[in-house]
Write a structure and sequence with these properties.
Length: 235
């Protein structure tokens, strides 16, 4: 009789647990179904929930799932949901970073910059011509051409050190507009030095195209990757 009574108590507990689990299953199923209908990104969570529900439905009533194991599975579900939420955030991160980068680029307007290029803009009596020297030079010549490619002037330069250098061209007799230039130079031994031509001026605009950033310097659009220096103007 004692054994029968003990068996009845166990069955009674199983009935109570079964009822509780059934209610939990119904609630979880409704939640999972609602979540699935609102977002395709919850497929992983739905699959996990369905597997856990199936496990509960098919468990032995006389030997139900251990409470600790059930809590562990719920913790796994929570971790899965957090990982999927993190994945959603990471997928949008490039967009946020791109927007942040664009905003930062706009702050460069008004700064002075130098970049690769050989276009100079004449707007007054003197024009600065900037270039990069890979080594010291003994002497050199800067030749300036108009928009038709005709040589309009030349400027002699003396000894200069390695690095970013410049010379001033007296351009007062020339019409305003864009010109191009070439630089030839030699070192102390008379060997030719290859000079990197640069443009220098104020950044007046920023634009974005095909995922790349461009700065407007002296009316010329220059890729940001070609910029050598930027001097932020402070007031």
């Amino acid at each position: 009789m004692a054994f029968g009574k003990h068996q009845y108590i166990c069955l009674g507990r199983s009935k109570i647990m079964t009822t509780t689990v059934t209610n939990a299953i119904n609630a979880a199923t409704a939640t999972a179904t609602s979540a699935k209908s609102t977002s395709k990104n919850t497929l992983g969570k739905d699959s996990f929930m369905k597997m856990m529900i199936a496990q509960l439905q098919n468990q032995d009533p006389l030997n139900p799932m251990d409470g600790t194991a059930f809590v562990a599975q719920l913790a796994q579900f929570s971790s899965l949901e957090q990982l999927q939420n993190l994945n959603d955030v990471m997928s949008t991160l490039p967009t946020y970073l791109g927007s942040f980068s664009n905003a930062q680029m706009a702050n460069l307007i008004g700064s002075e910059a130098t970049a690769a290029g050989n276009v100079i803009t004449v707007s007054g009596s003197s024009t600065k011509i900037t270039y990069q020297l890979p080594s010291d030079i003994q002497s050199g010549t800067v030749k300036i051409y108009n928009s038709n490619g005709a040589l309009v002037d030349s400027v002699k330069i003396g000894s200069q050190k390695t690095g970013l250098q410049s010379t001033i061209w007296n351009s007062g007799s020339q019409s305003p507009g864009n010109y191009t230039y070439e630089v030839s130079a030699v070192d102390r031994s008379g060997a030719e030095v290859t000079v990197n031509k640069m443009i220098s001026g104020q950044i007046t605009g920023v634009s974005f195209k095909d995922g790349k950033s461009y700065l407007t310097i002296n009316g010329q659009q220059v890729a940001f990757s070609d910029v050598a220096t930027i001097n932020k103007t402070t007031i």
